[in-house]
Amino acid sequence: MSSHYCETVGRTIFVVTHPEATHHVDGLVGGWHDSDLTPRGLQDADVIAQALANELHGVVDTEVFSSDSLRARRTAEPVAAALGTEAVFDRRLREKSYGAAEGRPQRWLDERFVVPPITGDRMAHDEGVPGAETKADFAARIYEAMDAILNSPAEHQVIITHGFALTFVVAAWITMPLSSLGYVNFPADPGSITTLHEDDYFHNRQVATLASTRHLA
Predict the structure, then answer these.
(1) For the chain, domain boundaries
(2) Nearest-angstrom CA–CA distance, 65 and 63
(3) pLDDT by residue (tens digit) across 54-68?
(4) How many Å from the N-terminal Cα to the C-terminal Cα in the chain?
(5) What is the distance between the alpha carbons of residues 155 and 61, in angstroms, rounded to a whole number?
(6) Phi, then psi, of 136 in degrees rounded to 5
(7) Cβ–Cβ contacts within 10 Å for residue 15, how many?
(8) Using CA atoms, how far apart are residues 143 and 172, in angstroms rounded to an integer?
(9) Is the N or C terminus of the chain more exposed, i.e. has fewer CB atoms within 10 Å?
(10) For the residues of 114-130, what is the DSSP string, one character each?
């Protein structure tokens, strides 16, 4: 991960995990399977958009970055519209690829999945599913996307991604080395908002809220 981030006077990033999608309710493996939002998910996307518009009231030039998967795009569209901007879609913000398991019943993956070892190289571990990304490859592309996002001078940004991907967005934000990610996990429900803040004096990076769903209550 690059350490040459753009100097700013401070920064706040809102990280959204897309709300309920069809693969959730159908019991299918997500990953790069291009599931759509459910009717509930579409309603929650509008709620998320309004929550962010309220939070960013009076702020101009907020940047919106999103995974290019359909369920993320459908979340990004009302968010970008509410903030008066256009979303930038980046395939590097996609969920982990599960290769041959994608779009299949979750039990198909469960029957073949090889659990990572308790010790040893958990990042390069082969999970036993043809075509699936290793954790190392998955984390590296999220870190690459975060490098590009953080090199922007914008003080307010929104990132729309996926539940598992959120872990590596947060890890990149607090500059955890890739070699230290073997055990890290920040669980998040669909439709959550995580708030990341960098102060304008020490430039410390805070995780101000993690995977909050209060706006959906």
Answers:
(1) 11-216
(2) 7
(3) 999 989 899 999 999
(4) 37
(5) 9
(6) -65, -45
(7) 25
(8) 6
(9) C
(10) -PPPSSS--SS---S-T
* Tokens (6 digits) for 56: 């960013």
One-letter amino acid for residue 117 of the chain: P
31 contacts: CB under 8 Å, gap ≥ 6: 95, 96, 97, 98, 99, 101, 102, 132
User: What 3-state DSSP class applies to 41?
Assistant: helix
The active-site residue out of 63, 95, 133, 198 is 95
The answer to whether 152 and 137 are in contact (CB under 8 A) is no
Amino acid at 149: I
Q: Are 66 and 16 in contact (CB under 8 A)?
A: no
Fill in the amino acid letter for 109.
L
Element (H, E) at 15: strand 11-17
- 4: annotated active-site residue: no
Coarse DSSP helix, strand, coil percentages of the chain, rounded to the nearest 5 percent: 35, 20, 45
Using an 8 Å Cβ cutoff, are 174 and 105 in contact? no
Among this protein's residues, is 55 annotated catalytic? no
Q: Could you give the C-alpha distances from 102 to 27, 85, 106, 137, 209, in angstroms and in order? A: 11, 32, 9, 17, 31
Residue pLDDT, tens place only, 104-145: 999 999 999 999 999 999 999 999 999 999 999 999 999 999
According to CATH, what is the number of the domain 11-216?
3.40.50.1240
Decide if 73 contacts 66 (C-beta within 8 A): yes
Output the pTM of the full model. 0.94
